[in-house]
Amino acid sequence: MIIYSGPHLILTYEQDNNRFINSWKSSPTTVEIFKKEMLEYLSALERINPTQIIWLQQNYTFQIDDETKLWVEETIMKPRFEVGCISQSQDGFHHIAFVVGRDVLAHIMMMAVFDEKSRSVFKPKHFATEKDARNWLNREILDTVYDVQSQRQEIIYKGIDTDGTAIIEFRKPASEIDRTLKSFKSILEENDFIKNNIEKYTSLSKREKETFKFVIKGFSNEQISESMSISSNTVRTHRNRIWKKLDIKHFRDCLRYQCFIN
After folding, report:
1. pLDDT on residue 229
2. How many other β-carbons are positioned within 10 Å of the β-carbon of residue 212?
3. Of 117, 109, 31, 115, nearest to 75 (Cα)?
4. How many CB atoms lie within 10 A of CB 174?
5. Strand pairing partners for 168?
6. 232-239 contacts, C-beta under 8 A, 24 or more apart
7. What is the helix (H) or strand (E) element at residue 213, kind and residue range?
8. Alpha-carbon distances of 35 from 5, 44, 107, rounded to whole Å
9. CATH class of the domain comprising 194-261
10. Which helix (H) or strand (E) covers residue 97, if one does?
């Protein structure tokens, strides 16, 4: 039963399993349009209170920014949790399944709303097909056995398009799409971090970089002093300069620079 059909979003309610099927007939093109459709979605949630949700992202291409991600968490998801509509299970909070669309980058950016760095209590699953998503929600996941050939990952160069952009195809079993997307997301985040912090890291002197390698490994000042054959005071001086140049506030901030060390 269709309960909402807007300019872009269609909401279908399956009463037998108390499930929403949300699909995009076309993708939003602006933040304002996206928010308007999401508010309609929230209204339907409050009216019907489904226990399961599937998002079909086939036609979704809108890449939301950080501010909009926060808006989704604060405006759409947080109120649902605070009024007690969401319960915890072994799979996390609530049963939400996303079916990956053609625009993988847009999907990855949407995933950031739910990642470990956000405050979201929702932990959705990601699937290659609607059938896989339904199987998970129905608890009918089958232990499918793949032969060696089907499990092998492939990276295929497809040539150059009309804009001069290289096209590379990455093939993995559909059952691994959740982990594959998370891997892509980590790579993109690391790449952005490198681009945004390369000048800070290159401002370190050779000895400061050497000291930083030991810091990231968890060495104490005394251990670094012994390893580098310098005094503890010199180590502290290096640390202070590193902290200032890299704008480090806590030790966990150091670990993000592991990509430069590697």
Report:
1. 93
2. 23
3. 31
4. 15
5. 157
6. 235/211, 238/207, 238/208, 238/211, 238/212, 239/211, 239/215
7. helix 206-216
8. 15, 14, 17
9. mainly alpha
10. strand 95-99
Cα(173)–Cα(128) distance, integer angstroms? 9
Give the pLDDT band of residue 62 (cuts 50, 70, 90).
very high
CA distance 262 to 249: 22
Residue 168: what pLDDT? 67
What is the spatial distance between Cα 189 and Cα 24, in angstroms, rounded to a whole number?
A: 26
Q: What superfamily would CATH give domain 2-140+165-182?
A: STAS domain (3.30.750.24)
Q: Where are the domains of the chain?
A: 2-140+165-182, 194-261
User: What are the tens digits of pLDDT across the range 200-249?
Assistant: 999 999 999 999 999 998 899 999 999 999 999 999 999 999 999 999 98
Total length of the chain = 262
Within 10 angstroms of residue 64's Cβ, the number of other Cβ atoms is 19
Q: How are beta strands 125-127 and 95-99 bridged, if at all?
A: parallel
